[in-house]
Amino acid sequence: MVASSPFSRGACLGVGCALWLSWLALHVVGDPTLPKRPTPFGFLGECREGWLLSPDGTCSPCPAGTAAQTIHGYNAYTPPGYATGIRCIPCQPGWYSGQNATQCQQCPYGTISPPGSPNCTACAPGEFQPVLGGNVCQTCRPGTYSASGARTCTLCAPGQIQPLPGQTSCNNCSRNFYMGDPGGTWCRRCPLGYVSEPGSDRCTPCNPGTYRDANMTYCQPCAQGYFAPIAGMPRCEPCPSGWYQDDPGTLGCKACTPGWTSTPASTGCWPCAAGRYADQAGMPTCVPCKPGQFGPSGGLSLCVDCAPGNFSDWVWSGLPYQSWPATQLSQCTRCPAGQHQGDPGKSYCVDCPQGYFSGTGDAQCAACPAGTSSGVASTACTPCPVGYQAPGEGTFVCQGCRQGYYNPTPGTPECLPCPAGSYGYFAQSYCIGCPKGWFTPFDGVSRCTMCRAGTYANSAVNATHCKLCPSGYISNPASATLSECIPCPVNTYQPKPGNTTCLPCPPGTSTCQIASARCTDLPCPPAPPTPPPRPPSPPPTTPPPSPP
Hints:
Layout: E1 7-8, E2 11-12, H1 14-27, E3 37-39, E4 42-44, E5 51-53, E6 59-61, E7 66-68, E8 88-90, E9 95-96, E10 105-106, E11 111-112, E12 121-122, E13 127-128, E14 138-139, E15 144-145, E16 154-155, E17 160-161, E18 171-172, E19 177-178, E20 188-189, E21 194-195, E22 204-205, E23 210-211, E24 220-221, E25 226-227, E26 237-238, E27 243-244, E28 254-255, E29 260-261, E30 270-271, E31 276-277, E32 287-288, E33 293-294, E34 304-305, E35 310-311, H2 327-330, E36 333-334, E37 339-340, E38 350-351, E39 356-357, E40 366-367, E41 372-373, E42 382-383, E43 388-389, E44 399-400, E45 405-406, E46 416-417, E47 422-423, E48 432-433, E49 438-439, E50 449-450, E51 455-457, E52 466-468, E53 473-474, E54 486-487, E55 492-493, E56 503-504
Antiparallel strand pairs: 1-2, 3-4, 5-6, 7-8, 9-10, 11-12, 13-14, 15-16, 17-18, 19-20, 21-22, 23-24, 25-26, 27-28, 29-30, 31-32, 33-34, 35-36, 37-38, 39-40, 41-42, 43-44, 45-46, 47-48, 49-50, 51-52, 53-54, 55-56
């Protein structure tokens, strides 16, 4: 109803209203089916609600999409140029009406309508309309979809996505991709070691013994030599050194038995080389035999001690153990001559001490026999030289023959005493005869003794004792022969042997010749001519002193 209507029920005011009523009375007949109401100019026609009173006086229904407007319940025609009166008004956007409608209805959810629409149109798939009386369909955002006439968009279910707006359905995530939340716009990639079926909302870990890497679609069993101990492995782990695996798709590896080993990712084990051992199962490497031991063959769990007289001693040079000479580990070395080793399992040999010797591989050193000697680490004993002796076994230094002894033969255990009449210096190979006027009465004398005055030696050399000068003679020290005893001159005498002076004859007595043992009172026969005097003998040569 228009508020500025120029008339009201039962009254009409103003010139305009009067003219309008005059015109209306002349032209409007009205619906004969409705009662007539008296007016100042006749009767005012009435039409049912939803009908329009036409200028020709007939009632006609408002077309679909419009609604009749009434003034106090009376239908009337609104002349051109007037804003008031009775008319059919088009429904506004989002509203609609059927024929004979007295008012427009709101379009339901999921539909829209333009102005003056007789019906509502459903939103297209991929769109939605969330309010009553809506006039614009909205596009579904990514991660949602809709069918025709949707009030709201539906979230994509877990395992599905929709990256584009305005879509009618969602897409399944591809194999090995997933989406765990509703309304997803992109699928997440399964981590390595996990898989999924198309349209999955989660990933499933590969079972123990299997794996999946970036180049694989499905979980695959581990190859021989590898293992996967837990679920969800992106790769299989190689069996470590000392372990192996000859089956595919396993959770663990098998340990090599003692005496055997392996490299990483092995499908089997092999025996330790000679000279090496593995004393436990699963050892990553075969260990070289310890010093003093050796490995005579392969596959040993323990090495063998070197026997007495042998040793094993390797020195690490910084090279891998595979580079060490096998002979250093697979066999022991015999002790060299001059050394020995009496205990098993040793890494060294010991030098023979002085007075002992050994051959190659000897467990013990042997004592040098009497008459020989040796230094440290000797391979043989050396005979003592002449003038030296070694009276017992195990002598490391030959001893020089002491004074008065000698040794004429090399290697003779003991020195011999110099015989009486001779003497010897230190470390002599022979004895020296006593010079004239000297003597040695015993064996093993280190120096000769000078004959005392009144005596003489009975030979020029090697005298064993001195003899007394006879009566009538005297002698100086070191006389070598009887002729070197001095006869007493005439008128002197010496009645006793072995004296050093001649005695004068008592008065009244005399000696008729030299070398008299007594004087006489008898007259002497005529004396023969006196020979010229004999020159005195030179003093004897004193032998050099013996060395201390």
